[in-house]
UniProtKB/TrEMBL annotation:
Keywords noted in UniProt: Glycosyltransferase, Transferase
InterPro entries found in the cross-reference section: 6-hairpin_glycosidase_sf, 6hp_glycosidase-like_sf, Gal_mutarotase_sf_dom, GH65_N, GH94_catalytic, GH94_Enzymes, GH94N_CBP, Glyco_hydrolase_94_b-supersand
Any GO molecular function: carbohydrate binding
Transmembrane segments: none
Domain Glycosyl hydrolase 94 supersandwich positions: 11-278
Taxonomic superkingdom: Bacteria
Domain Glycosyl hydrolase 94 catalytic span(s) in chain numbering: 314-741
Protein name: Cellobiose phosphorylase
Pfam families associated with the record: GH94_b-supersand (PF06165), Glyco_hydro_94 (PF17167)
Gene3D superfamilies (UniProt xref): 1.50.10.10, Glycoside hydrolase, family 65, N-terminal domain, Maltose phosphorylase, domain 3, mpn423 like domain
GO biological process per UniProt: carbohydrate metabolic process
Amino acid sequence: MKYGYFDDAAREYVITTPKTPLPWINYLGNKEFFSLISNTCGGYTFYKDAKLLRLTRYRYNNVPYDNNGKYFYIKDVTDAANTVVWNPGWQPVKTKLDSYECRHGLGYSKFTSSKNDVEAKLLTFVPMNDNCEISKLTITNNKNTAAKLSLFSYVEWCLWNADDDMKNFQRNLSTGEVEVVDGGSVIFHKTEYRERRNHYAIYGVNTKVDGFDTSRDAFLGAYNGPDSPDVVAEGKATNSVASGWSPIASQQINLELAPGESKTFIFTLGYIENPEDDKWEAPSVVNKKPAFKMLDSYKTEEAVDKALKELCDYWDNLLGIYHISSKNEKVDRMVNIWNQYQCMVTFNMSRSASYYESGIGRGMGFRDSCQDLLGFVHLIPDRARQRIIDIASTQFQDGSAYHQYQPLTKKGNSDIGSGFNDDPLWLIAGTSAYVRETGDLSILKEIVPFDNDMSVAKTLMEHLKCSLNFTITHKGPHGLPLIGRADWNDCLNLNCFSEHPGESFQTFGPSEGPVAESVFIAGMFVKYGEEYAQLAELLGDDAEAKRARDEVKKVYDAVLDAGWDGEWFVRAYDAYSNKVGSKECEEGQIYIEPQGFCVLAGIGVKEGLAAKALKSVEERLDTKYGVMILQPAYTKYHLELGEVSSYPPGYKENAGIFCHNNPWVSIAETVLGHGNRAFEIYKKTCPAYIEDISDVHCTEPYVYSQMVAGRDAKFFGQGKNSWLTGTAAWTFVNISQYILGVYPTHNGLSINPCVPEDFGDFTITRKYRDAIYTIDVKTNGSQSGVKKLTVNGKEIEGTVIPYEAGIKEYKVEVIM
């Protein structure tokens, strides 16, 4: 069952009913100012950091779903005996609408709805170069008679620190402070401004208003929710001025429309920081000049339309960097639009702010952000470069790192701490991807602090060396890397240990007591150790490259010796040196991670083991909705495994379908030249291919989810944790670099597709460094293998097109 459809020409997903299985959201903003908006106008706004600079409130785990946002109430009093109140996005009043449509586009959302022959069109977006959200609302009277209406806006302010805002009531219920200007057409949110924090928020409309409210209790009524505000019911604002308690911003606009007449109103929600050298008259005095300058910038429809065009042009340029034209409509849709769009959002947000992550508990992830780079670096390399520096700056001198950092301060999050032993290697992965994409070796010579302390700063290449050395110096009894607190699988906590069954467990660090090992990290080390060696060679350090490859060989051999279980790769060894993910185990006999990552790293390919491992995946882990993370599911709690078995069977790490690591298996299949199987795996989690089961899948049909419930779950196939997931980057890497086969190397683009037999011919346009490549591929029904490669009319050997500075266009013909 579907709840909408793709409009590829407009690059929009069109939602045709507000009653989607879950709220289906969009992200507004590309730089520092962001909003989340749902298909019923729920959501919230923040500047840079969803925890520390939250502008508007949102209530998570709410009943009913998604019941706080930025709302417009339309009260139709044309017929005094039959007044009706409704919202363009249906919520929160939930009046049955005569028509409804939500279009989520790239950085904007549009709503068109109607009730009793009154139509509302709402456009909401964040402009490219301003810290504000624009909402353009057009109301049209389609009645045969004049329409008499009242419009009420509504925004609830958050008292900046979202964590403190929801807990520290003894203080916060006395700090709410606002200022009303121009009769209420502009409302200033000043809370905490008197502490010289030098920032405030505004909510303004480009017209005179007939009333306003800034007190939530006055607007809603002390015991009402947003679905039944007192002010809207009475039809008259109270002109309340909040002092303490909960501040809001609401304006009332009364209007009469002749038959066929329309009126447009522009609402601006903005964030302002005063210049550092501002001279203040008093700590609580707001400098209003920047606010009015911002409001004046968007007071006309022409200005708003121009800003929207700038946003659309921005995406036109970005999405032109990698573009495919094929007979496969769904592949084109995902590659050209939605997959790259999601990569941008995950780069901006990491895992911090969604409808599943509150923006409070998590900041930017070390591992997460490094992986996000893989799918983003081709879009805006300069931002990727800065992100690498920011991430590396949270690393410790021994190579380990804070697992997360706050985007506002760029300081490591001590609440989460470190100990995830895969983290260091992801820094090599992200840096390698950047250098391969850009050819910019200067980043490796950039001086970067450890733990943000410039007194112990070294070059980025030295940071990467610390990453490599951390794994080299943290191995267990089988010669495999220590897992530490966890590796990629945060719930596989194998250093949970008890001397006697039934006793409480202790958690051992990487140098204490019994230690657990990770075959997955071993696979990472083999892949990224080689990529580190290539970087060393580029810097002329052949000795370091040889040292790295010697260490890679040791781990490679250790995997073959201790990490092979006969038909698949072992997942790990626990703190007792017992195998995890082995046929010797009663439950959890096979895990997806080492099968995918070891094979994509090349382990076991020449020995004939890789094909066996992938066959085991197909036979034991595959389902119609994707590849499960492990089997059989854990049916009882295993203390020695940590959190992984705390989930019910089929959910999350306990045999759920992690969309994030399905691409690893698909990539592994391309390593073996299996185009049919690689694409089969790709399709099972690809939104465009599963749109028809939206009633089962539940999450947005235009973006990837982190997890889909596995075969053992009650709700098999149900998605969770959409948008912010490494699935986005890894899937784009899989489809663009391995299946379609356009892979950036240090020396040039490699063209080596691995597609299904019936994929057909295709053309890719790819910007690489300062040149445009037009790549025409004739597949000839082949799954893999390049028979002939012609570049600008000349046939070349191999699959890598040598990069030559100065050549701006490459015409490439590939015959498989």
